[in-house]
Amino acid sequence: MDSSGILLILIVLNVLVSIKGFNDYSFFRKYQFHMGSIQSGEQYRMLTSGFLHADMAHLAFNMLALYSFADVVLQLMGTFSFVLIYFASLLFGNMLTVFFHKNNYNYTAVGASGAVTGIIFSAILLFPNMPINILFIPIDIPGYIFGVIYLLYSIYGMKANTDNIGHTAHIGGAIGGYIFTLLKAHYVLTDNLFVVVILAIPIIIMFVMAKQGKL
């Protein structure tokens, strides 16, 4: 299957499963991320929750982001590595969520954000200077700077805990994309070592803060 085909399949799966969830609340509840249910043995939710979305805007935003960054990863790493990074990032996002929210049995979440964030960070490692536009900044910024800002904002969001955004899953997804890109594309360590180090710093900060009980 060519690269455009696998991307289309992922987008269609997200759309179909999400629409089913919009119209069938029992289906939505059965397959969403729910901490208590996962700890009771329903680990399938770690995967299925990544194809559900809270509403159409949530779905559209994630699919647009996936479409925007997927081509870099597909072209430079191939279809197999792209799929590996997508699902590894999805699972890393949910595993980090379990780590931080394991005592909140009522914690719920849905969305492909972890997987999509992994693809975004993979693309940044492969093409660090890609121009990225943030709505409130009138100029394009290099991808690696966006990555650092994104991670720092996500850490702030985890600490503040004042919204319904799954910041923990975003960081976990970024870690998944980061690790598996380095495993599959060793040349990044030599060609883009500065970016590899710069992106690692916010991740290290997060774990240090967690160890100190500040998250």
TrEMBL record:
Q: How does it sit in the membrane?
A: Multi-pass membrane protein
Q: Where are the transmembrane segments?
A: 6-23, 73-93, 105-128, 134-156, 168-187, 193-210
Q: Which residues form the Peptidase S54 rhomboid domain?
A: 41-183
Keywords recorded for this protein, A-Z: Hydrolase, Membrane, Protease, Transmembrane, Transmembrane helix
SUPFAM superfamilies named in the record: Rhomboid-like
InterPro entries assigned: Peptidase_S54_rhomboid_dom, Rhomboid-like_sf, Rhomboid_protease_S54
Query: Where is this gene product found?
Result: Membrane
**Single GO cellular component term:** membrane
Q: Say if the entry is tagged with keyword Transmembrane helix.
A: yes
Q: Name one GO molecular function term.
A: serine-type endopeptidase activity
Q: Which terms does the UniProt entry file under GO BP?
A: proteolysis
| Keyword Transmembrane helix among record annotations | yes
Which family does the similarity line name? Belongs to the peptidase S54 family.
* Listed name of the protein: Membrane associated rhomboid family serine protease
Q: Which organism is it from?
A: Flavobacterium aciduliphilum
